[in-house]
């Protein structure tokens, strides 16, 4: 059985665990290195990336996370989780570090104050029907390396054309929160990536 952990020191862990459980996966929270060792794949949830990185460091998870992700463990980051997987951050706090692994530059809180949170329909690579995407103080991808596949962009408004979902090898990331909409298609795709790796 595929075992997928959800980074659980901070963020919206429960919704991800519920989605994974609906898909028949062995799903559990990851707070300690021993729990990370059990993971075939890992989800880094939404939350607050500055707090996540500090807690990961305090609980001796940051280096083990970097090691596993760079060794190729399938990893899926949503919102703050996308920031955690980015090699480069703009508008981070002073000294903010990431796990890295995705050759992208993200901008934190990129959509601006007026539109802090919003919902929209997105065309998503490989999916027939659009995805209803919920954005909450979300980052966008400002630059993506040549090996990064763009999975979705925002259409319309000031953010027209901004990249909000990417994949590079076994790492997937979205600016939005697929776990809150009850649509399990992106989690299903991640479970498949994990099962095949
Ligand atoms: N703005 C948050 C951060 O910088 C991300 C928000 C979210 O995950 N919903 O980490």
Description:
With 197 residues, the chain is of the alpha/beta class. It has one domain: Class I glutamine amidotransferase (GATase) domain (Rossmann fold). The protein is 27% helix and 31% strand. A hairpin with a 2-residue loop joins strand 11 and strand 12. The relative contact order is 0.18. The model has no long low-confidence stretch (mean pLDDT 96). It binds glutamine. Glutamine (GLN) binds next to helix 5.
Outline of this structure?
The chain is α/β, with parallel strands linked by helices. Helices cover 27% and strands 31% of the residues. The chain has a 7-stranded mixed sheet with strand order 2-1-3-4-12-11-10. A 3-stranded mixed sheet has the order 5-6-9.
Please tally the helical runs, counting DSSP H or I stretches of 4 or more residues.
6
Model regions low in confidence, pLDDT < 50 over at least 5 residues: none
Mean pLDDT across all amino acids: 96
Radius of gyration in whole Å, from Cα? 15 Å
Give the name of the CATH superfamily. Class I glutamine amidotransferase (GATase) domain
Q: What ligand molecules are bound, each kind once?
A: glutamine
Helix-strand makeup class:
alpha/beta
Order of helices and strands: EHEHEHHEHEEEEEEEEH
Reading off the top of the CATH hierarchy, the class is best stated as: Alpha Beta
Query: How many beta strands in the DSSP annotation?
Result: 12
CATH architecture heading = 3-Layer(aba) Sandwich
End-to-end Cα distance, whole Å, is: 13 Å
Which strands sit side by side, in order, in the main sheet? 2-1-3-4-12-11-10
What shape does the CA trace take? globular
The percentage of residues in β strands lies in 25-35%
The number of distinct structural domains comes to 1
Q: For the report, how would you describe the main beta sheet? A: 7 strands, mixed
CATH topology: Rossmann fold
What helical percentage do the residues reach?
25-40%
């Amino acid at each position: 059985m595929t075992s997928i952990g959800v980074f659980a020191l901070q963020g919206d862990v429960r919704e991800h665990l519920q989605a994974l459980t609906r898909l028949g996966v062995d799903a559990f929270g990851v707070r300690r290195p021993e729990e990370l060792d059990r993971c075939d794949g890992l989800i880094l949830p939404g939350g607050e990336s500055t707090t996540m990185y500090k807690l990961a460091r305090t609980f001796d998870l940051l280096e083990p996370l970097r090691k596993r992700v760079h060794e190729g463990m399938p990893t899926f980051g949503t919102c703050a989780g996308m920031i955690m997987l980015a090699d480069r951050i703009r508008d981070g706090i002073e000294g903010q570090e990431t796990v890295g692994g995705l050759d992208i530059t993200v901008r934190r809180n990129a959509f601006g104050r007026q539109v802090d949170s919003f919902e929209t329909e997105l065309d998503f690579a490989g999916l027939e029907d659009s995805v209803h995407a919920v954005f909450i103080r979300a980052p966008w991808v400002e630059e993506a390396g040549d090996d990064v596949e763009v999975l979705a962009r925002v259409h319309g408004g000031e953010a027209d054309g901004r990249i909000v979902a990417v994949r590079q090898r076994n790492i997937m990331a979205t600016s939005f929160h697929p776990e809150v909409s009850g649509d399990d298609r992106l989690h299903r795709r991640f479970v498949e990536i994990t099962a095949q790796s």
